[in-house]
Design brief:
It is built from four helices and seven strands; from the N terminus they run E-H-H-E-E-E-H-E-H-E-E. The protein has a single domain, classed as Aminopeptidase. It has a seven-stranded mixed beta sheet with strand order 1-2-3-4-5-7-6, with helices on both faces. Strand 4 (about 85-95), helix 3 and strand 5 (about 120-130) form a beta-alpha-beta unit. It is an alpha+beta fold.
Length: about 170
């Protein structure tokens, strides 16, 4: 499947909300939940506008992963962009129907290629210890695991083990 990444815009809100709702249970199997409020369109629309403002301020850069027909199959983001130090953090999620097709790998490759345009020379990532698929995507794209720590999820109160990765560009 051919994919491309497209910068998040205001018109994406409804389709992105549907994507998030349709994949909620799947995502929450491997990443901390976002809380019930996130799945109310009013709350989601406010959060969407906040993301667009972060993007406008160059603090973050949010992308939708789309297949050729324009259907959203995932998301990938660079957040906490620090152009002075050249660092940012990457996060991504692929919809359940689109896993195991190489989409996360290709989307991460595309984003890594765009990072220098945002003055990013080092990308950090973290994933839960049980998210093996994400760990494989990071390693395949040249990220190295640099540390492990435990955190308590602010949303669920669960104790989670996180693996931290980094890649110099």
């Amino acid at each position: 499947m051919d994919i491309y990444i497209e910068r998040l815009n205001e018109q994406d809100a409804k389709e992105l909300f549907a994507f998030e709702c349709n994949n909620r249970r799947f995502f929450e199997q491997t990443v901390p939940g976002r809380g019930d409020d996130y799945y109310s369109f009013g709350t989601f629309a406010i959060r969407h506008k906040e993301l667009l403002k972060e993007q406008e301020d160059a603090i973050s850069s949010f992308y939708l992963i789309k297949e050729d027909s324009g259907t959203i199959v995932g998301r990938i983001n660079l957040v906490d962009i620090d152009p002075i130090n050249g660092t940012a953090h990457v996060g991504y999620r692929i919809g359940e129907a689109f896993t195991q097709k190489g989409i996360a790998n290709e989307a991460l490759r595309l984003l890594v290629n765009l990072a220098p345009e945002m003055n990013v020379t080092q990308i950090h990532a973290k994933t839960t210890s049980d998210n093996i698929a994400s760990q494989k995507v990071l390693v395949k794209n040249g990220f190295e695991r640099i540390s492990i720590n435990e955190e308590i999820s602010a949303d669920t109160g669960q104790r989670l083990t996180f693996y931290h990765y980094s890649k110099k560009l």
